[in-house]
Amino acid sequence: MNKKDLASLKKILIQKKMDFLNKMSKAQRGIYDDSNTSVGDEIDTASQNSEKEMYFELVASDKMTLDAINDALVKIEKNAYGKCEGCSNNILLERLKVIPWAKYCIQCQEESENPKNKK
Ligand SMILES: [Zn+2]
């Protein structure tokens, strides 16, 4: 991978990281703000609860992506970025442009998602 590609992917990763941090702090504020709302009827409370659960799920999956982004940024510093953690082959640049925090090449990713297809 050339330096120009690496620099642009790094930029995307940092941008994504900021986006996630903003989104997560907003979601957390949303949860805390709820404690101040006056008690509504039961249907309102139920729908508020399911919204809260959605926030938690969102934050949990965002945290995983954020971890992967942080890992990718560390790897860039160590000059180890772009290698598959499964087979150590280089991950295709086309794939990294779509998912800059990808840890696995397409083959390893597919195998981990569909273990039954493994031959
Ligand atoms: Zn692989």
UniProtKB/TrEMBL annotation:
Keyword Nuclease appears in the UniProt entry: no
Gene3D superfamilies: DksA, coiled-coil domain
Zinc finger DksA/TraR C4-type domain: residues covered: 81-113
Organism for this UniProt entry: Endomicrobium trichonymphae
PROSITE patterns registered for this protein in UniProt: ZF_DKSA_1 (PS01102), ZF_DKSA_2 (PS51128)
A Gene Ontology molecular function term of the record: zinc ion binding
Record-linked InterPro entries: DnaK_N, Znf_DskA_TraR, Znf_DskA_TraR_CS
Name of the protein in question: RNA polymerase-binding transcription factor
PANTHER family attached to this UniProt entry: GENERAL STRESS PROTEIN 16O (PTHR33823:SF4), RNA POLYMERASE-BINDING TRANSCRIPTION FACTOR DKSA-RELATED (PTHR33823)
Keyword terms: Metal-binding, Zinc, Zinc-finger
dksA C4-type ZnF: 84-108
Keyword Ligase applies: no
